Amino acid sequence: MVYKAAVENLSSNYLNAQIDLLNQCYARTNSDTTNMRSIFQSRVGSSKVRFILDQVIRVSTTLTSFDASSTSGFANSDIVKQTGSGGSDAISPDSKLNVWICDLTKDGSNTLIGYAYPPAGAPNWTAGSQAPTPAFDGVVIDYMDIGGPLKQPVGYSSGFRGKALVHEIGHYLGLRHIWGDDGGACQGQAGFKDDGLSDTPVAGDYSNFDCNKTKNSCVETSGDLLDMVENYMDYSSATCQNSFTKMQISAMEYVLDNIRVNVHIPLGVSMTETVSKKIELYPNPVSDILYMQIENIEYEKVHLAISNTLGQSIFSTVHRKSLSPLEINTHNFAKGIYFINVQIDDLPVISKKIILQ
Ligand SMILES: [Zn+2]
Question: What's the CA-to-centroid distance between 54 and ligand 1, angstroms?
């Protein structure tokens, strides 16, 4: 989060709503998938990709905006990725997806919502499309587009409702726009390009940020289909974007398995294990004050429940702020073994054993 005005410094409410939305959209559990037209139902699917908010870094800057001008491409915007230039350096870009949230559009001369670099060697991209340096790998996105259906920044009006980040992470995981960025060409025409995936209908050009479900920008010679405005990788309105196709999902999972291999938690390591490693209770055994340290998670609330070995709950509390370490006074508890059950926001409940002596 690189902010100048206080309104740009989004609370963790928005960040957690965004993570929720990412997980819904990538799992295809978002409620608006019911809007998908039946002609495309057999083509769309759910991915195994999930997101955890690992760390939030908040940097106050004196720079007004991070524009990508038409002459410099993203070079100006990459300033946000440099602490020395008023931005914030990437954290471990080889193993973490860095997302820079900043004011990209405020000066009115720029309509950039966000951008991302595909990985080096991603299929269907031309050589050299990757970040100019690994330190610039990740996603930059305007603060106004972070959130979810339930959490909208003040003044929010674009209607993207957090789906811009779904789109940008699609690029980060190697997806192209469904019209192939060819400026309007269809099959057989000069300059025609495709996204390289055969289950996204051929489209000549992007949807104009609308939801036109009768648009057919390229007539295919056989099996012609309308443009798929429901696809996250179109430039359609977020109000109709609700799915990735199965081949888009395979393409993203290929990138995670073969190119961005360090970015993901391999299947078999559960979300519970990952969250558990972030919660530390000490000292253990304890005889006085028990401390709970939560590493690198910003949250709205943490629910803490202590139960005995019979499973009886003996203490329960909710902390509403990121106060760390939390202190738990154990004076009134009898000596013995207890289980501390911790739930941070909507993350899995973590159970840890402590000994009171
Ligand atoms: Zn895009």
Answer: 24
Fold of the domain spanning 1-267 = Collagenase (Catalytic Domain) (3.40.390)
Per-domain boundaries in the chain: 1-267, 271-356
Question: What's the DSSP call for residue 49?
Answer: -
> Is the distance from CB of 131 to CB of 171 less than 8 angstroms?
no
Q: What is the pTM of this model?
A: 0.80
| Contact between 142 and 112 (Cβ < 8 Å) | yes
237/315 Cα distance (integer angstroms) = 48
Q: Which amino acid is at 83?
A: T
CA of 99 to the centre of ligand 1 (A): 15
Measured at the CA of 125, the angle between CA 199 and CA 206, to 5 degrees, comes to: 55
Percent of the chain residues topping a pLDDT of 90:
53
Q: How far is the CA of 232 from the centre of ligand 1 (A)?
A: 9
CA dihedral sign, ordered 106, 108, 110, 112: positive
Gap from CA of 88 to ligand 1 centroid (Å): 23
CA of 331 to the centre of ligand 1 (A): 57
CA of 255 to the centre of ligand 1 (A): 17
In sequence order, what are the beta bridge partners of 313? 307
Q: Is the pLDDT of residue 85 over 90?
A: no
Q: Which residue has the tokens 């269907």?
A: 124
- State yes or no: cis peptide before 285, omega within 30 of 0: yes
Q: What percent of the chain has pLDDT over 70?
A: 89
Question: Tokens representing 304?
Answer: 């803490």
Task: Identify the three-state secondary structure at position 235.
Answer: coil
- Residue that wins the pLDDT comparison between 239 and 253: 253
What the block records as the tokens of 334 is: 């009898």
277 CA from centroid of ligand 1 (Å): 35
Class at the top of the CATH hierarchy for domain 271-356: mainly beta
pLDDT band at 273 (very low <50, low <70, confident <90, very high): confident
Say what the pLDDT of residue 106 is.
Answer: 55
Please check whether residue 112 is in contact with residue 68, taking contact to mean a CB–CB distance below 8 angstroms.
yes
Q: CA distances (Å), 308 to each of 123, 195, 291, 355, in order?
A: 54, 57, 18, 11
